[in-house]
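Fig. S4 source data, part A: sequence.
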Amino acid sequence: MITVLSNARIFDGVSENIIENGAVVIEGDRIRDVTSGAVRLSDARVIDCRNRYLIPGLIDCHVHACSPTYNLPVADHLPASLLTSHAVRWLKGALHRGFTSVRDAGGGDVGLHLAIERGVIEGPRFFFSGKALSQTGGHSDNRPADYVPQCGCAGYAGCTGLVVDGADAVRLVVREELRKGATQIKLMLSGGVTSPTDPMWMPQFTDDEILAAVQEAGTRRVYVMAHAHTDDAARRCATLGVRTVEHGTDISPETAALLAEHCTYVVPTLSPAALLERHGARVGLPPAGVEKVKGIITLMARSIENLTRAGVKLGIGTDLFGEEFHVMQGGELKLRGEVSPAIDVLRSATSIGAEILQKSGELGCIRPDALADILVLEGDPFADLGLFEDAARNIPMIMKSGQFVRCSL
């Protein structure tokens, strides 16, 4: 079956030159042709976009599908079946918000990936890390300071991460996650907001431990992403071969230049920063996290400016926990638009996201041979990035792999 989306204003994910009166020809799960003007194919289904914007499906490079609450010490003790049930609902919601690909930064696994690929559940294309790796007392070690283990073992695993210490142990765990199909490996390299005992400034993992993870990921031609709020953590990412910096909250101009030199990507996450700074206690953030998050949104905006000036490529990440807040996913684009030009934000959410996923030319673009992940919009995204906040109203057509998720044109 051939489908033609005609009379569209096409943003291809890269160029700011919009294709006016454009048409996209889709055959199977791929884009066959992109052109300007009328397309006449006798056996095609033709859908008139009525001069609406047509863009690639969005890519969220930092999600947690298993994310029922920001109170991770509580979430860590929920049954796996309950976490999976939350994930199923989250994944369907993300797809219907226009995110046709997502990268899970800890907790999502091969089971969710297979369920989506086999059509058991509805969801975006799913790139997963397995469990995020934390050192003892680091981010993802959600045991409170007064926790006393009842056995002699030192290990700990929660809903999104697990604790591991020593280069050899890191190497073993990375190999295990890769055996299970992980498309990238996640490390925690600085303190975090939701973890109870590590200050934000705390360096985490030794160089040897980080290098072990980077080396093992390289054997499978995948990469390491790292939770890194601080300038020091971001510098370690650049020098030790970590490919993407997550959050990048407090990055100096000097470190931004170093990241650009090493072609390191950064994925800022403004949505949780804004949410937690304003409503941390209400959303279930422990008291220590409420203190940590003060002033974080201002720091992150300044970092984005430093990174942009240095030429660092930025992805889009939302990092939202809790069903009440998952619906804010599209709002990340609006928040980024308060710091960056709309064209930069749209590239981050499409073609740069595809680069981060190692899928350039296949995802995040409107071009021949790319997968047909396509959105048609009500409104002009270059004038109003806020339209992504209300996908039900403003994204009348969502297509993933050539199949309609929604079409009310």
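Fig. S4 source data, part B ends here. The CA atoms of residues 16 and 343 lie 7 Å apart.
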